[in-house]
Amino acid sequence: MRKSRTIERIPVTEKDLREQVRTLCKLFGWKMYFSWTSIHSPRGFPDLVLANPGQRRVIFAELKSEKGQLTDYQREWLDTLEPAGAEVYLWRPGDIEGIADILRAPPDQLVNRGW
C-alpha cells in the first residue's frame, strides 16, 4: 500500500505577489508605482498605485500575504480612497487570477470591485 504524500506549499510573500502583479501590469499595459522605502510616505498608504490611460483607470492596491492583516492606518486609507471614487483593492496571493481579470477588464465589466 502506498503512503499518501502531503504536498507542502511554499508561502507566497508580499514581495512575490508584487512581482506577479508587476508581470500582469506589463502584460495588460499598466504602469505600476511602488515605494521601495516608505520612510517619507504617509503611514498605511497602499503598496501599489497602478495606472492605465487606455482604460482611463487608476488602482490603489494593498498587498498582503494569505494571513496578513491590515493595520488601522491601511484600513483608513482604503476607507478614504474608495468613497472618493478610486478603485481600491486588498490583494492576496490566492487572488492572482482575479487580479488578472481586474487588470484585463474595462471597469464597467468588473463584477467584484473593492476590498
Which helices and strands, and how do they pair?
Elements: H1 14-28, E1 31-34, E2 48-52, E3 57-63, H2 72-81, E4 87-91, H3 96-104
Parallel strand pairs: 3-4
Antiparallel strand pairs: 1-2, 2-3
Helix pairs in contact: 1-3
Describe this structure as you would to a colleague.
With 115 residues, this protein is of the alpha+beta class. The protein has a single domain (14-109), classed as Trna Endonuclease, Chain: A, domain 1. It contains 3 helices and 4 strands. It has helices spanning 14-28, 72-81, 96-104; strands at residues 31-34, 48-52, 57-63, 87-91. The protein has a 4-stranded mixed sheet with strand order 1-2-3-4, sandwiched between helices. α1 runs parallel beside α3 (96-104). The longest helix is centred in the N-terminal third of the chain and has 15 residues, at 14-28. It is globular.
**What is the first-to-last residue Cα distance?**
47 Å
Biggest sheet layout = 4 strands, mixed
Mean pLDDT: 88
Our estimate of the beta-strand percent is: 15-25%
CATH fold descriptor? Trna Endonuclease, Chain: A, domain 1
Structural class: alpha+beta
The number of distinct helices, counting runs of at least 4 residues, comes to 3
CATH class, anyone?
Alpha Beta
Radius of gyration: 16 Å
Can you tell me the number of structural domains?
1
Provide the helix percentage. 25-40%
Looking across the biggest beta sheet, what order are the strands in?
1-2-3-4
CATH architecture: 3-Layer(aba) Sandwich
